[in-house]
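Follow-up to my earlier ticket, as requested here are the two runs.
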Amino acid sequence: MSTRSSPVAIQSAVPVPTPLKTSTAVSSSSSDHTSSSDSLNQIQKSGKDKRHSSVVDVDRSASPGRLKTMRNSYRVLKNLTQKQMDDFMNSYVIYGLDWENEAQMIATLGPDYPTAVHDCLVSYYSVLNHLCALGEVEKMYIPPVMNTHAGILDNQLLYEEYVAREIELKAGDHVLDLGCGRGRVAAHMSKYTGAHVTGLNLDADQLASARTFSAKRKLPLEFIQQDFNVLPLKLESESFDAFYQIQALSLCKDLPATFREIYRVLKPGAKLSLLDWVSLPAYDSGNSEHAELMRRIKPLIGAVGTPTVDKFHAALEDAGFHVLRSDNASIDGLQAPLIERADGYFRRLQSLILALVKLRVLPAHFKTLMLRLTQDGQAFVQADRMRLITTSYHILAEKPRL
């Protein structure tokens, strides 16, 4: 299949089976005869009474208790050492770089720049995941807008349940989650379908949280510490029935090599679901306004690379996958309503924290953390509304059957 310069939807002849559990709010018209390429269209074209309904029916049984999570993260952040703070702030240097400009990478980070990037990411995520847990983005991603009346958490659940159906997860299946974070998405996937999820992540702190969370709920989850930029993956060939990742490949150094590895570990006929960051055709690197927005957004969303849709298609097809669907998963192609919601929440939280720092109730480094976290949310909103970039680009692909 040739690569395409614009979003496409490709008809799949493979029907999506009914999952172990169903969610009527996602698509009450989904059935055993609904193709994977049509299912998101049905969600988004099923009528305002469904996609705009204020009643959201999702499985929240694997969702974390927000107050407990916030308390735990607050304690970690309060006790950060000066070295941890310095390492976190210094880690942002990598977001001014791009994997494709190796000369700049070497000039900034030295000849062993992949190791330097890895070390920066460890420092970055050791703090950032706790900052995100203070709000609605413990899963560390802004989801596609699946329901205009739902908040961030429910839109995350709606999207995750959609993914479970499109990759045809069922009880007993083994699925790979790349960049699994704290394992909250994996927990929901497993609870929703009965599948066994294996999560990969480079941050030991997030993995410890994931293991504790899944053990308490007795879910069939496994978590492996590995930087997916260090290949090969520590996984057996043809050992997984499906694959998904959510906004992790913005950190990927070599998309073709990574997709070849994923192809290796998937069984024939397995489906792959991606949700990630891309620059869109309207983005012009020679436009000073566009370039400035990009400079501000990359540190906010944690992106070293700047992939395009064409690059994803080419890398997938080079690895041997067939692209079944490729489009923006958000209603009307805009995430801005949810980005604004997250930005507004953290700005309100920032005002409270700055007041508490001033009163010396909180240590001074909380001010530094919050100012960094809320620095460029409006740039993200602006670029999304200008349709220059998105973090809700969705691709479904399949490893051919034998």
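Run two:
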Amino acid sequence: MVEVLFPMMTGDPQDQGVLTLWLVPDGDAVRPYQVLAEVTIDKFDAEINAPAAGVLTWHVQEGDEVAQGAVIATIA
């Protein structure tokens, strides 16, 4: 199982970000480097890519506040 993490986007790890959009439905198969989600923090937007192939399982929902470095999904 591979963890998908919210990226470190600011110099302060205490800053919270928001998962703005899932681009792949929960339970779907993904391939390496596929864009999975969009996130934002302090007006900085980023895309999260799949680190491996497998089946995506969400751990947070769209609109959730998330700590930088936190697990947002797993791929098995």
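The only thing I checked on run two: DSSP finds no helices and eight strands in the chain. Let me know what else you need.
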